[in-house]
Amino acid sequence: MAAAGHDVQLPHVAIFPFMARGHTVPMTHLACLLRRRGLATVTFFSTPGNAPFVRGQLDDDVAVVELPFPDHVVARGAAECVEALDSLFPLPAFVEAVSALRPGLEVSLAAARPRVGLLVADAFLHWAHASAAALGVPTVAFLGGNMFATIMRDVILRDNPAAALLSGGGGAEAATFAVPEFPHVHLTLADIPVPFNRPSPEGPIMELNAKLWKAIAGSNGLIVNTFDAMEGRYVEHWNRDHRAGPRAWPIGPLCLAHGGTGTGTGAVEPSWMKWLDEKAAAGRAVLYVALGTAMAIPDAQLREVAGGLEAAAAAGVDFLWAVRPSDADLGAGFEERVEGRGMVVREWVDQWRILQHGCVRGFLSHCGWNSAVEGVAAGVPLAAWPMGAEQPLNAMLVVDELRVGVRVPVPTAMATGGHGVVGSEVIARVARELMMMAGEGKGGGGGEAARNVASLASKAREAVAEGGSSWKALEEMVATLCRPVEGDTPKPTK
Ligand SMILES: O=c1ccn([C@@H]2O[C@H](COP(=O)(O)OP(=O)(O)O[C@H]3O[C@H](CO)[C@@H](O)[C@H](O)[C@H]3O)[C@@H](O)[C@H]2O)c(=O)[nH]1
Q1: pLDDT reported for residue 71
Q2: How many angstroms separate the alpha carbon of residue 25 from the centre of ligand 1?
Q3: Where does this protein have coiled-coil stretches (predicted)?
């Protein structure tokens, strides 16, 4: 393995993302950032099934090394990415299957010339941290989420608020748990991610969680896709008072690695981009709707979303809805009925480019952390509709603390892991509220959330600009953690 575009004086950073789009995309941004800033040569590990996607996201001077699954794993039909799973419950088995890549990683790391000075590996690839440590390569963990959710997850494991909330008898749904370190944070049962919202959580997800935390605790640093103006108090708390893991490095928003110009435009402009251009030319504002890559949405819920958007469109809200290709059943005749007002896209879109389009003024999002941080960085207020994983905590941060969005009210039974749907009338109402609040122009005139998000977006740009907090954090992280190339002196930091 040799790093492309190798420049002898630069340290060699290897990056190994977990095989989920929400984990891979920000890591590709990090790879490009390290190269563009001349901080390191970069090797990016992937698998044959994921490599075409990864190459499409990366600059040419990032080397991609494919680690193939051993034959027996492929023969068992192992999917190469989480998006093929449809729910989070086979996740622990998927994570275990992926550990079949370990011998290949070890051979590649040991043979790398110049030697690898730092491995940035997803915490889900917990074994990769152990492999690197055995070879004397320092590691930085990446988890994909923000600092707030990371701290809250640790607090939840420590204090088991679900037990306290449920032991109070009736009214558990309305009861709140004040987080000792941050008494302004009041967790309800619906805010606590499944399965931590049960008094005695156990099972494969808990076992996986323990492995992730062990990997984080054993690594030399933790990368967080955030920035000081957004989460400075939580990063400071983690680095000063919290003992659950190594130093956190807030180096985001990573989507701004591309300088805010989007991740490249192919030769042919996609249909959705042309549609947005037409909307802009007609002076229309557009609501962007995307509910995540990792989890399938039940058909009944999809049809409620469709009904809600149709009603919102009838009331003047134009929308672009990016659906997972498998979430295809939106109800008979929906697309015909909304034609002109709404567009549905069933392919991979460049979400970051969409969010930056001048006419996109609101984002109905599941609050996956990348989507949330991209919305903020693009100055687009959010309607937060958490659907699983740590998303309820992201929604708390975005709506209650940063005040850059509104909430989609979700029935508690559904929010705590049970069945149910959010009705079309609720979706229509939130869509209209968000777009009214977003006002007449990006960051202009609208409600509090629109003003706040405009201000935070400009602070995000300051953070990644030369001399900004994230700019400095990345430089310092590489200088602090990365072993210099043998026989070479590391490039002096500016
Ligand atoms: O057509 C698409 C779909 C997605 N994206 C990008 O893919 C990423 C998706 O990430 P995210 O918004 O975080 O959604 P998920 O992939 O659903 O997120 C998973 O990973 C996140 C990071 O760990 C967690 O916060 C979530 O809870 C978890 O579901 C973002 O960068 C999007 O811009 C596109 O560019 N085009």
Answers
A1: 73
A2: 8
A3: none
Ligand 1 in reach of 145 Cβ (< 6 A): yes
Cα 243 to averaged position of ligand 1 atoms, centre (Å): 29
Instruction: Tell me if 337 sits within 8 A of 310, measured CB to CB.
Output: yes
Q: What is the DSSP string of 123-183?
A: TTSHHHHHHHHHTT--EEEE-SS-HHHHHHHHHHHHH-HHHHHHHT-TTTTT--EEETTEE
Domain 271-459 matching CATH 2.10.70.10: the answer reads: no
Same fold, 12-148+198-259+467-482 and 271-459: yes
What residue type is 165 in one-letter code? L
Atom of ligand 1 nearest to the CA of 355: 33
Query: Would you say 478 and 37 are in contact if contact means Cβ atoms under 8 Å apart?
Result: no
Centre of ligand 1 to C-alpha 296, Å, is 13
Residue-wise pLDDT for 264-300, tens only, equals 455 689 999 999 999 999 999 999 999 988 778 899 9
Q: Is the peptide bond before 195 cis (omega within 30 degrees of 0)?
A: yes
**Closest to 59 (Cα-Cα) out of 255, 254, 258:** 258
Structure token digits, residue 85: 């799973």
- CATH annotation of 12-148+198-259+467-482: 3.40.50.2000
Distance between CA 438 and CA 432 in Å, rounded? 10
Most informative mutation of 19, 21, 387 for ligand 1 (most atoms within 8 A of CB) = 21
Q: What is the pLDDT of residues 169-209, one digit of tens each?
A: 666 677 899 999 999 999 999 999 998 998 888 889 899 99
User: Rounded to whole angstroms, how far apart are CA atoms 17 and 120?
Assistant: 8
Atom of ligand 1 nearest to the CA of 352: 33
What's the 292 CA to ligand 1 centre distance in angstroms?
6
Helices in 271-321 by DSSP H: which ranges? 271-281, 299-314
Residue 381 Cβ contacting ligand 1 at under 6 Å = no
Please enumerate in sequence order all residues whose Cβ is within 8 A of that of 314, keeping only pairs 6 or more positions apart, or say none: 341
Going from the Cα of 134 to the center of ligand 1, the distance in angstroms, rounded, reads 32
Ligand 1 pocket member 53 (CB < 6 A): no
Domain boundaries, the chain: 12-148+198-259+467-482, 271-459
Kindly report the pTM of this predicted structure.
Answer: 0.93
How many C-alpha atoms does 389 have within 13 Å on its Cβ side?
22
DSSP sequence for 25-91: HHHHHHHHHHHHTTS-EEEEEE-TTTHHHHHHHS-TTSEEEE-PPPHHHHHTT--SSGGGTSSSTTH
126-150 pLDDT, tens digit per residue, is 999 999 999 999 999 999 999 999 9
177-179/182-187 β-pairing: antiparallel
Ligand 1 pocket mutation pick from 345, 348, 351, 360 by most atoms within 8 angstroms of CB: 351
